[in-house]
Design brief:
By secondary structure, the chain is mainly beta. It has no helices and 11 strands. The mean pLDDT is about 95.
Length: about 120
C-alpha cells in the first residue's frame, strides 16, 4: 500500500495562490504516476494533471491554464500550484498515485485523504 498525505489547503481570497503538497510513502511499490484530482461540492472527482516516472516531464499544466502539477520523484513528492484562484475552484483536492508492487505488473490506484481549498470572493 502506498500512503499519500496532502497538505497546504486553506482559505484564500479570489486571485490568490496556494501550493499543495503530497508526500508518498511507497515502501514495496514502484510508483508509475503521481497526480492531483479536484472534487467540488456536488461534482465528480476530476483529474487536474499528473506526471509519470517514465517521462522526463515533471511539470504539467492543468487544462484551465491556472494550475500546475510538478513533482520530485526522488523525494516521493508531488505538488499542485494553484494560481489566480476563483470561487469556483473551491473543492477538495486529492493526491493520486498509480503504483505496482515490486515484482508485479498489475497497477494499483491510491488516494490521499484530500485537502480542502476554499476561495472567497
Amino acid at each position: 500500500q502506498v500512503q499519500l498525505v496532502e497538505s497546504g489547503g486553506g482559505l484564500v481570497q479570489s486571485g490568490g495562490s496556494l501550493r499543495l503538497s503530497c508526500v508518498a510513502s511507497r515502501t514495496g511499490f514502484i510508483i508509475d504516476t503521481l497526480g492531483w484530482y479536484q472534487q467540488a461540492p456536488g461534482k465528480q472527482r476530476e483529474l487536474v494533471a499528473q506526471i509519470s516516472s517514465a517521462s522526463s516531464t515533471d511539470r504539467v499544466p492543468s487544462m484551465n491554464g491556472r494550475f500546475i502539477v510538478s513533482g520530485d520523484y526522488a523525494k516521493n513528492t508531488v505538488y499542485l500550484q494553484l494560481n489566480d484562484l476563483k470561487p469556483e475552484d473551491t473543492a477538495t483536492y486529492y493526491c493520486n498515485a498509480v503504483a505496482r508492487r515490486y515484482g508485479r505488473s498489475q497497477p494499483i490506484n491510491h488516494w490521499g485523504q484530500g485537502t480542502q481549498v476554499t476561495v472567497s470572493s
